[in-house]
From TrEMBL:
InterPro entries, per database record: SCRG1
Species of the source: Colius striatus
Keywords: Signal
Protein name (Swiss-Prot/TrEMBL): Scrapie-responsive protein 1
Signal peptide range in chain numbering: 1-18
Gene Ontology cellular component annotations, sorted alphabetically: Golgi apparatus; neuron projection terminus
């Protein structure tokens, strides 16, 4: 009887869908007709971080998501995931 109860509990637990993580994750965006070197300024809500960080952009109005351009797509991640918490605080934020 204990074995049946354990199997029933186990099958119930395995059948439940996983809860999505609250931590934002990385995602890719296609550049649609542009490359890393010809993204018009202000397009797609991107701002270049710094001349020293070529092909790296802030996404949106704040400085929470960083996108890296690779050929014709962007890889965008929260800055703590992209650079790590020890480095991300020294990346210059130009929120204009």
């Amino acid at each position: 009887m204990k074995m049946v109860s354990a199997l029933l509990l186990l099958s119930t637990l395995l059948g439940t869908p996983a809860v999505p993580s609250r931590n934002p994750s990385c995602y890719k965006r296609a550049l649609k007709g542009h490359s890393c070197h010809n993204i018009p300024e202000g397009t797609m809500n991107l701002r270049q971080i710094d001349d020293g960080l070529q092909d790296h952009f802030w996404e949106g109005k704040g400085c929470k998501v960083i996108c890296y351009c690779n050929l014709n797509e962007l890889l965008c991640c929260p800055k703590d995931i992209f650079f790590g918490p020890k480095i991300s605080f020294v990346i210059p934020c130009n929120s204009q």
